[in-house]
Fold each of these.
Amino acid sequence: SRFLALFASELAKHRHYKRLGQIMNQMWSRSPTRVSSICRTPQLHYVRSLLGSSQGASPKDIAKSLPFSVYVWPILRGRVPFNPRLAQADKKIISLKVSSKLGQAKEVDNTTLERAIFFLVQNGRISMAMRLADKMAPSITTKAGNIILSGSLLPRPGRRARRQVRHACSRLEKLVKERGFVPDRVTFNLLMKALLQWPSVTPLSVLQSLFERLTISGYDIPQELLETLRLDPRRMSQAESQIALPVDLKSFPTKVSFRKHTKPLFKMFIKAFKTRGDVYNAKRISMALHRMNVEVREERERRDEARRLGRIRAREKRRKALFKI
């Protein structure tokens, strides 16, 4: 039962909804109680109700309902009655339901609000998301602010290149001044994504200067990587005046997560260098990222092994203490 619950959780995490729907439907026909025990988590509660409904559900219906169950139903549960057809409704209707129900609620926890804001932003309902963010007191959380900022990077016909960068910067300044938003390294990565995806905004000289300036922000860039990169100091010094980020690179905490911060940022730079035809620097950064990934994995394995040995020693110590008694 525990293994199946973890397996279902991993399938949902990696968005293998079709396979998970087939497994759950087959198990429900054999052992409904076993599936009910797996679906006790809030993310799968809607699927559990769907399987137990009088109409029943096909594997296709379950696969279509899983994203709704994982991302939307935890927000609406307790505020909207269960309906087997709710997961198949248009996203515009669901967005209106999410906005109205949470807007009418007197008290809503920040986790629910962050999930609702994420759903609304992904569906292009930025104004609704901003209104829900007003319910956060005394100020908007950093996670919610980053979600709203990411809405500026969604593709829009009239918002490209410099317009998109200006829109993202103005939205960030508005969040900081009016909502008390505190930027973090994820905010910095979002701004870098807005800059790096447009070669007309960040030509090769500006791109090289941006990568070198990452060391100022506390990112652990190997010195041998900076030495092997082909950088043009003269053109980089001229490009310094073209870089104007609305966040202070030195104001972030010194702690940097490789998985959350460094790895996504390096991947963005690799793609940007390739797009601008600088294959040499792209390969050097890719090789450095691979080495850093190996080092992080080996360090994690060492910590796991140390914890395992520590548990064995503690167990042996308890066993010897029992024999002494």
Amino acid sequence: LVVHVGPNALLLCAGTSLLLWPRYGLVLMGLTLVLCQGLEVDRHLESHRQLQGWEQIEADNPAEREQDYSRQRARRILATETELQYLGWSRFGQVRVLATDKSRYLVLYNLKRQYDVRAFEVGEHSLDEVDTSEVSGHWRLRDTFYRLFAADQKLIIIGVGSGRGSSHLNFEPTSTVTLVERDPAAARYFAEVNPAINDHLFSQVHFEVADGRHVVETSGGSLDAIVIESARYQPPHSMLPASSPFYLFTREAIATYLEKLNEDGILAIEFTRTIDGAKNALVPAQVLDSLQALGAPYTLYNTEPRESILLLASPPGGNLERWTDRMDTMADQQGVRR
């Protein structure tokens, strides 16, 4: 009921029905739920939430504001005129999409900014004609790294959100590429409600709405690459424990990822918002500790400002240089360094 009607409307219907007609309140509640769904009552109620004030409070500390890239960006976006485009619920909570007057969409999970995206075309991967100083570090890392893949390789990309990262591939992805998004409400928006944003990408690839670790564990055959996008510490209100970084990046999880790769395969993990505070060093440290214990070769790439770090790792005895040699030849032009 929460997914289809929304919790605000559900509480309103239940309370009103039991107050007006206590004896037959459950019958009346069923009728009002149908009415509330048709009138989008939950959406109208949520539209009154003051997100600008909420973000302002989060960034009131001047010292924190200087180092917190994500909150600065959210404040800039929310300072523009925004319009609620989508409100969805799932077992993970609420997803809302706000459109801005700059043709960008801000995506919030449980009222916490996750990412913003503009409409893009599949294959729109090149930053060659863009001033890289105006492009954030994680996009420069992706633009460099994603060019290494070929159309005949079997890839799993986890945490894709809108699918924007996949636009950096230098080929149009098909069913050999598996894209994974954990939140059904976010997936529903980009796959069904407004698929034009990502050029109908999710209908071209093998798209799974599931936990990324489960998808890897149940995949058949060996993989050429496992990519985890936007890995970072998440507070409890953003995710359930079963999908938190502590679950995706345990030593057992890292061992599984390496076992699923072929001998020339690559595990790539993009750690984002690493300048947002000390807490975001927790997940990278946990992964590095696991790789060292497993005897897996790895290396790191970053940009300035060091808002993102890209980790590349191969299975023990694997050919990491096969990837890093090609990565190094393209890194300098994007301001990426090892």
Amino acid sequence: ELLIGECAKNIRIISVNSDFMNMSITGHYNLSTLPGSLAKACGDVLPTIGNLVGTKLKAGKYNRNSNSLALEAHINNLDILEKVFNYPVSISKPVYMQFALVDKDSTCSGYLSVPEVIISGKRLSEGNMTLNSAEGTCYTEITGYYGDRDEDGIAFKANLMAFMDIVRGKYSWKSETGQMSGDAKTLSQFFRYDTRNGLNSLTFIDTTSIMVNGTMWNLSISRLSTDKHKITISDFCAKNDSQYLYADGTVSADSIDIFKLSMTRINIGRTLSVLKPAKKFGIQGLASGYLSISSALSKPAFYGSFQIEDFRFMDSYHGLLTADCRWNQQARQ
């Protein structure tokens, strides 16, 4: 059911009521210029991202918009996403959302509450996000819980401050038993965006220590940059007393760009259990070597050489496994 009306002082009200969602938008606004207002809200804090959003929404110039609105919505189910997009997502309790925007004052604020959502079998609960933007600065906080509490799920929190095309981030996470925990800081700067070259940005990940499956890892400062539809990772290094992992290179559709992963005595069983904690994997051992990937975003080709000490497969011990990987571009294998 769609209801459109106006009340005193030309305040427009639009209400949508359905099995999927109940939503109302109240205020002084023009639907045709709302995309421009969203782009402006982003651009007031992050001009480059405002340009990106305006381009994607085909908003054109938005500096003369004068929209002022308040939105409130209850999302009751997400069946439409699975039916239309074949995307496995469901909620057990309604999602609640508030959003307010005033073009003339260059302010916006929002609140999102997600009691529980299951995405591809993964549970996210107690999710909350708050956003407040004014005078060219935006503060965002995100909290939630990932996984099931009886399977050592992880509580997480993120705080972001954005201003003048810069985003500072602080992140923390901890599982019930403490087997997975850590803190991290990032600093991102956006330089430009255009349809030909994509987004040009640079992100620094600060030095930190994290706990992974009860093992402490030290991470050195590293960089992640994007430009010309390419992602470049520089000097990512994670190590502890006995294990070492290093990543460096460019991920793109171009065959001349190579991403390389080097490792020393990486515990395969523990690493795989990070991806699926509740699943017992049949592969065990300590892996050392390297793997290179070219044209990762189009026709990926793999090259590498590695060995696995104390290799076990399905409870069967095989000792030392040595392998060389050479990609056949014609056979694609």
